[in-house]
Protein 1
Amino acid sequence: MTEHPAPAGVPTCYRHPERKSHIRCQRCDRAICPDCMRDAAVGFHCPDCLAEGRKATRSARTTYGGLRPTNAATTSMVLIGINVAVWVAIVLTGGSRSRLVELLALYPVGQCQAPGGGYFPGVGTEALCSTGVGTTWIPGVADGAWWQLMSSAFTHVQPLHIAFNMFALYLFGPQLELYFGRARYLALYLLSALTGAATIYWFGPEFTPTVGASGAIYGLMGALLVISLKVRVNIQGLAVLLGINLLLTFTISNISWQGHLGGLAGGAAAAAVLVYAPRARRTPVQVAGLLALTALTIVAIMVRTAQLS
């Protein structure tokens, strides 16, 4: 079908000049024909304005500068999935006696394991351990197993341990991702895990392995406390919850108070960097602050390694 040009002086669609139009885009005020009309909350938008609006929506920022997540639970669910996968692998390969526990748990120093269980005291090198019959060398952070500082935060053995930690992660994680965005939230989580592990490395028993995401979980609680103080909301409920958990930390045996307090301090410090960064230079200040906290933690780990070595 052939279309004839519109008479002079009659408004025409900006995309189809041959079509008369008396409808205008609510955003840019350009004339649009029925084929170019896009429904909006009020009136109609043209295709170009609709595309710009979608782009702006996709790049919307969270309260503290991160990209707004489409699903705030995604990162937490991925972290939960990794923890559960490691736990299942440990269960299928022997539970507490799994070789995975020996490789992934946080051992400050290496140990020489006897054939029937237990450890040979005073055997502090792999070379010396290898001279024994049926012995197994379990590496520690001071001997070069640096990955344990992070892998231990994804390692669980007891079902109740992983159940409690993953429930707390599911409860607190999405809230923080809404505040910070995915990248900042993940950085907060991992830094809390690292500071918790570093505190264990410094103040925990040298020959006792440690596992669990509790340091990172306490970091999330510390971050929520910092945000609550910043926005001046009632922190009574969160303070009671944190107080109960700290009480259990110091009253129940076999719980690493070092990891809990280290993670709490690390998470609170990281959240303070993210929350109090000046709006005008928010991202550079946040990145620099998180890198500084990470660097200080790594230096502390290196100093402790030198002492133990």
Note: The chain has a mean pLDDT of 89.
Protein 2
Amino acid sequence: MDPQAPARDERQAQMPGTTAPVHPAIAFRGVEKWYGTRDEPVHALSQTELAVADGEFAVLLGPSGCGKTTMLRMIGGLIEPTSGEIEIEGKSLWRNGQRQAQALSELGMVFQDANLFPWLSIERNIALPLELRGVPAAERRARAAELTRLVGIDGFGRRWPRELSGGMRQRAAIARALSYEPRILLMDEPFGALDAMTREAMNLELQRIWIETRKTVVLVTHSIVEAVFLADRVVLLSPRPGRIDLVETVPFPRPRVPDLQSTPEFQAIVRRLRHRLNEIS
């Protein structure tokens, strides 16, 4: 989407089926997910159709248990869909029950917990995916140094994870996910455990990183304000079985500053999403 696109009428929220990009980085085609349980099957996601454009910042929003994380983990190849097809950069993610390495190579993932190895330095944590891919040590060190600068922890590469704050550990986790230059970054509530001030700072940092790298980003959050501040489009999911209820385009130019959140235009989108969430919850 054009970040300079003019604001649209606040009634023009997009409905499912009207937002598919021409050349999607991620495509869900009729995706369903059922979980088998001891008592009865759980229908987690229902007939989902979604396309995310190359370089787009999309946010998944919805009530607890609606399938946001299930959807993100299916994009990441961690969960196989029960039916339907998921494509990454035009390549099938699953074939005959097997994840396809070519599609997986396009994906990086960041979780709520940074999950850094405590016995490795920050530099080695960041470079670990490259080490596992057999990249030479000098190249790994150079890439780790480049990424510590990108995420704002330059000078901390030789520290241990325990010596960094929660926000700095998450910066390192983002750097690790970017180390092998995936085209798509998947983020599952990466700032959910941080205090409010650190979370706001990390939102600004993530926006800056996205502007510099132009990765395709899919982020899961429970925060409506965070969703509207970061997203090109907010994808609102219904309660279980999750389905796309609404897709809201966010028209504000970038870079966005915190003061944007107090404007009538920003608050109108937040109110509309909150109202719809209250209706469907």
Note: The mean pLDDT is 89.
